[in-house]
Amino acid sequence: MPSPPVIVVEDDPFTRLIPLVLDPNASEERRAAFADFMSTDEPNFSDWCARVRDAAKGLYPCEVRMVTSEGEMRENLRDCVALVVESFRVTREDLAAAPRLQVLQKFGTGLRNIDTAACAERGVKLLTLRRRANISCAEHAFGLMLMLARKLDELHGLVTVERIEALQGSYRPYDRRHTPGGNYARLGGSRALNGATIGIIGLGEIGHEIAVRARAFDMTVLYHQRTRVPEVEERELKARHVPLSTLLAKSDWIVPQLPTLPSTRGLIGRAELGQIKPGACIINVANAAIIDREALVEALRDRKLGGVALDVHYQEPVADDDELLSFDNVIMTPRMAGSPRFNGLNDFEQLITGLARELA
Fold first, then answer.
1. Other C-beta atoms within 10 Å of 334: how many?
2. CB burial string 197-231: b at 16+ within 10 A, e below
3. How confident is the model at residue 1 (pLDDT cuts 50, 70, 90)?
4. Average pLDDT over residues 329-340
5. Is residue 302 part of a domain?
6. What is the distance between the alpha carbons of residues 250 and 281, in angstroms, rounded to a whole number?
7. Nearest-CA neighbor of 151 among 190, 193, 192?
8. Structural domain span for residue 85
9. What is the pLDDT of residues 303-330, one digit of tens each?
10. Could you read off the pLDDT of 208-220 as tens digits, one per residue?
């Protein structure tokens, strides 16, 4: 009996779905953990696995090798027919060490970590995936932005005389013989996104999705990262690369969108928060550690910031007495940016069935 095909996969909390569908020797403990994780949106995870497995006929059963480093990836290239990577570099030398490789799947769309010319020369099919979870993160960032800009949390239910009086002390209608009747609750301080400046720190795949939506709001888009993106991408997004200090000083909305690395931890501290224009808001759906917590709390106490919205936190779940919960201009959501779970499930159904088609 021939050996099952080998697929090598860069280990990521979500790519761990692949062996649960394709490898009969996958961990039952992990299978149960994913069934629990997916249960909010997919109550029968085993049926989902079976449906995707059936749609990927010919690829099951296979051996899926999860690798946690580029070195471990290279040690497993000789036997693999398909390789799935997110951030690992795949070089010409790597491809030469993978004589059976037919398909290279990027878990995302950016190809800066892959030698695309070498893939073409060796006849390795290169697949990409525009991740639905990334799109959802961008949507959530704008949901938080709109919530702060339009004060939606304060306005919810503020439609009765009794509720307006409870908040404002009195209800005074406008003289409708002469004026329009908008904002009859008389709540001030809302703002528009149109014409505002958004500063995105890290124009990776989620940062790109955020910039696409900022363009739709007719916002001015600034971005900062160590390496400029190609000029064609800047033109597409109408985005301008600037130093971090310029971004902080000019942006009405600041969106850090960087991975959690030693180099990004505390990237925005007291000095950086001191450079932010008065009244600017911070939206963080990436990772809490980018912003120094004590410096952020101090800036909020001093009313230097117009608002902060966090979908990622310094402790999860957040402590009930966390001071960040006490500010009226802070919004906190329980790591919802990538949801619903069908974002990831649909991504991996597309990824797995795509591999099956190419390997058939």
1. 11
2. bbbbbbbbbbbbbbbebbbebebbbbbbbeeebee
3. low
4. 96
5. yes
6. 12
7. 190
8. 6-129
9. 999 999 999 999 999 999 999 999 999 9
10. 999 999 999 999 9
| Amino acid type, 131 | R
Instruction: Evaluate whether 27 touches 37 at the Cβ level (below 8 Å).
Output: no
Look up residue 94 and give its two tokens: 């790597």
For residue 179, how many other CB atoms are within 10 A of its CB?
8
- Are 8 and 77 in contact by the 8 Å Cβ rule? The answer is yes
> Phi/psi at 252 (nearest 5 deg)?
-85, -30
Residue 90's SS3 state is: strand
Which residues on adjacent β-strands are paired with residue 197?
220
| 138 in the same domain as 26 | no
Is residue 260 over pLDDT 90? no
Residues 223 and 305 reside in one and the same domain: yes
Average pLDDT score over residue span 257-273: 93
**3-state SS class at 124:** coil
CA 173/CA 227 separation, integer angstroms: 55
Q: Do 232 and 283 share a structural domain?
A: yes
Token output for 240:
């301008």
CATH of the domain at 84: 3.40.50.720
pLDDT of residue 57: 87
Residue pair 348/52 in contact (Cβ under 8 Å)? The answer is yes
Show the tokens assigned to 123: 């006849």
Structure tokens at 304: 């230097």
DSSP readout, 309-332? Answer: EESS-SSSSPPTT-GGGG-TTEEE
Supply the pTM of this predicted model.
Answer: 0.93
Q: Which residues contact 94 (CB under 8 A, 6 or more apart)?
A: 73, 74, 77
Pairing assessment for the beta strands 220-224 and 239-241 based on DSSP bridges: parallel
- Identify whether residues 314 and 202 lie together within a single domain: yes
Element (H, E) at 165: helix 161-168
- pLDDT beyond 70 at 337: yes
The dihedral formed by the CA atoms of 270, 275, 281 and 287, expressed in degrees to the nearest 10: -50
